[in-house]
């Protein structure tokens, strides 16, 4: 069911809302709208909303238009909120009592006029979605909600986390999910599965599992992926949550919860309070412990969760008005137009194929990775879906850190290279962090570039090995070479230019015999860069030489045409990606590779 449903999510990339009812339908309009004299006392958020009025005049402009025509007079002193119900229901005689009631409790936030739902409203919408007309099931809505939470988290907290320190490597972001016993906990379990597939290091604390097939299956799914289930007592014994996770997902209680949390949930919430200095918290729909409508407004200072991120589902609940964190997202791209129209829900459009949309928060948005993450899950779980992107639109934001003059002043650039290279190797940024792009030129100045493996570096410079008779070997006789390294996960590159020379024969021989025996024989097999009739010709020669050197007690001699090169650097540049392409670049240069020629350090413009 989940796979089929994800396919449907991807194919249904947009929902079109269309209707502008004729104003002639609203026979009650002139009797219910207040004049401008009452606008201030009512407040913009309490005024009725209709898509046609908002799109064409703006609601207040339309009220002013009515006032100028004398329809509304100043004797409307007994205007009551019940008129809003009449206005919302005037368009259709088929609107139910539930929908009319909701219109009095849904409010609008700011210029986007987003609906906020009370607890009763949220229940009514869920009942409508799962009713006989629309036919959604609990597991369908839970799957979509959990996917939305995972995508929203990925948009602000990418899977790779940069370690502390200027040379530390990246590692998988650790996500700890607290799952409660209800539907909110189910959303958290679904999110755990998706976050695992997105590349996060996920673990789940599920203190009071719900013994029902739906929840049992969700636990089986994450367990089969190797996602560990940890007990609250183990987490307590290990120490503060900051040392155990980089992000915490609060999926304990939803909008149906009321009363005081019981053990162990009360202790979990205590560990997430500001005084405990927890990692960034992502709350699912309702910050646990908050009143569904009043939020934390009646809580004593320091006694309520203060999440860094809130992911509202279906529509924000009234408590979201009190959210003061950095990122507010709306998830759950499953509300059909019939429900939006029936309950007069004002929801923002979702960008592209994303399962979430940012709707507020005090902080700046992180990389917009939610849509990409959702597509990755769908592609992995379903039949291949062709996705073509414009090359010109492929870009990322470089936000892994910056470089300062103090990091380089008075230093040997080879020491800095050593630090950066060790950070890339220990951070496992790729399988071969020593892969360099080596550039050479022929006698006519025509350049060529290829990837080779850096095999050593010391105070002299940088060493690699190759066939002297290859194209690069011939071009290296010119005496100059350059190479670059790029480590995407660190958003760093190093550029090196210098004079090139062969390493001593003894050094080449020692390295040659340190290679696997098959590679040693391979150096004899290949006449590098020369045309080859076909693969079979190469394989035949390999078999012949394998037989010739089959006695492993005898060393394979080093071919005279194979050996190492040393690049003695005259220029080494360290590059760190920065936002808006205003990258940091520091270059060390000298005229000649000599201890008597000191390095000059300078910052370059990006």
UniProtKB/TrEMBL annotation:
Q: Where is the signal peptide?
A: 1-20
Essential cofactor(s): FMN; K(+)
Pfam families attached to this UniProt entry: PNP_phzG_C (PF10590), PNPOx_N (PF01243), YjeF_N (PF03853)
What pathway, per the record? Cofactor metabolism; pyridoxal 5'-phosphate salvage; pyridoxal 5'-phosphate from pyridoxamine 5'-phosphate: step 1/1; Cofactor metabolism; pyridoxal 5'-phosphate salvage; pyridoxal 5'-phosphate from pyridoxine 5'-phosphate: step 1/1
Task: Return the InterPro entries for the record.
Answer: Pyridox_Oxase, Pyridox_Oxase_CS, Pyridox_Oxase_N, Pyridoxamine_oxidase_dimer_C, Split_barrel_FMN-bd, YjeF_N_dom, YjeF_N_dom_sf
Q: Which residues bind (6S)-NADPHX?
A: 183-187, 254-260, 285
Going by the UniProt record, its keywords in alphabetical order are: Flavoprotein, FMN, Isomerase, Metal-binding, NAD, Nucleotide-binding, Oxidoreductase, Potassium, Signal
Q: Where does K(+) bind?
A: 184, 250, 288
Any binding details for the cofactor?
Binds 1 potassium ion per subunit.
| Family in the record | Belongs to the NnrE/AIBP family.
Instruction: Please describe what this protein does.
Output: Catalyzes the epimerization of the S- and R-forms of NAD(P)HX, a damaged form of NAD(P)H that is a result of enzymatic or heat-dependent hydration. This is a prerequisite for the S-specific NAD(P)H-hydrate dehydratase to allow the repair of both epimers of NAD(P)HX.
What protein name is recorded for this chain?
NAD(P)H-hydrate epimerase
The organism is Volvox africanus
């Amino acid at each position: 069911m989940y796979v089929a449903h994800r396919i449907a999510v991807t194919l249904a990339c947009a929902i079109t809302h269309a209707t502008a009812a004729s104003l002639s339908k609203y026979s009650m309009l002139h009797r219910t709208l207040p004049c401008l004299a009452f606008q201030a006392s009512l407040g913009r958020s309490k005024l009725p909303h209709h898509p046609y009025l908002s799109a064409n005049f703006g609601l207040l402009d339309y009220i002013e238009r009515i006032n100028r025509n004398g329809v509304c007079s100043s004797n409307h002193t007994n205007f009551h909120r019940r008129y809003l119900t009449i206005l919302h229901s005037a368009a259709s005689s088929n609107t139910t009592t539930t929908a009319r009631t909701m219109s009095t409790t849904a409010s609008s936030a700011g210029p986007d006029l987003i609906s906020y739902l009370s607890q009763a409203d949220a229940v009514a919408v869920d009942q409508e979605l799962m009713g006989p007309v629309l036919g959604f099931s609990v597991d369908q809505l839970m799957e979509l909600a959990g996917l939305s939470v995972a995508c929203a988290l990925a948009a602000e907290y990418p899977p790779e986390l940069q370690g502390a320190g200027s040379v530390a490597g990246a590692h998988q972001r650790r996500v700890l999910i607290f799952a409660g016993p209800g539907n909110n906990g189910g959303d958290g379990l679904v999110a755990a599965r998706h976050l695992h597939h997105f590349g996060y290091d996920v673990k789940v604390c599920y203190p009071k599992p719900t013994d029902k097939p739906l929840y049992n299956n969700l636990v089986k799914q994450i367990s089969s992926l190797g996602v560990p289930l940890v007990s609250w007592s183990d987490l307590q014994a290990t120490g503060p949550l900051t040392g155990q996770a980089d992000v915490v997902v609060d999926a304990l209680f939803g909008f149906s919860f009321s009363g005081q949390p019981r053990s162990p949930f009360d202790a979990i919430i205590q560990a997430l309070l500001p005084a405990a200095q927890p990692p960034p918290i992502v709350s699912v729909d309702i910050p646990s412990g908050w009143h569904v409508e009043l939020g934390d407004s009646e809580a004593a200072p320091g006694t309520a969760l203060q999440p860094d991120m809130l992911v509202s589902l279906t529509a924000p609940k009234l408590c979201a008005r009190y959210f003061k964190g950095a990122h507010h997202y709306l998830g759950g791209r499953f509300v059909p137009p019939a429900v939006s129209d029936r309950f007069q829900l004002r929801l923002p459009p979702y960008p592209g194929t994303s399962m979430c949309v940012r709707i507020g928060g005090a902080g700046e948005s992180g990389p917009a990775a939610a849509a990409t993450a959702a597509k990755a899950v769908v592609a992995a779980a379903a039949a291949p879906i062709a996705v073509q992107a414009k090359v010109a639109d492929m870009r990322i934001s470089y936000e892994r850190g910056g470089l300062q003059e103090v990091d380089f002043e008075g230093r040997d650039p080879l020491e800095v290279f050593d630090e950066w290279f060790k950070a890339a190797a220990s951070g496992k940024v790729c399988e071969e962090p020593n892969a360099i792009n080596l550039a050479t030129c022929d006698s006519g100045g025509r350049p060529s570039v290829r990837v080779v493996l850096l095999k050593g570096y010391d105070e002299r410079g940088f060493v690699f090995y190759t066939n002297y008779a290859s194209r690069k070997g011939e071009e290296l006789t010119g005496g100059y070479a350059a190479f670059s390294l790029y480590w995407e996960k660190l958003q760093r590159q190093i550029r090196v230019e210098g004079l090139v020379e062969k390493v001593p024969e003894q050094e080449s021989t020692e390295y040659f015999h340190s290679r696997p025996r098959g590679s040693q024989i391979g150096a004899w097999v290949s006449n590098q860069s020369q045309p080859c009739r076909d693969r079979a010709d190469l394989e035949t020669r390999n078999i012949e030489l394998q037989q010739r050197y089959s006695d492993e007690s005898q060393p394979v001699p080093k071919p005279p045409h194979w050996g190492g090169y040393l690049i003695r650097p005259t220029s080494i540049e360290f590059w760190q990606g920065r936002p808006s392409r205003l990258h940091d670049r520091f270059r060390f240069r000298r005229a000649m590779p000599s201890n008597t020629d000191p390095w000059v350090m300078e910052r370059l413009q990006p």
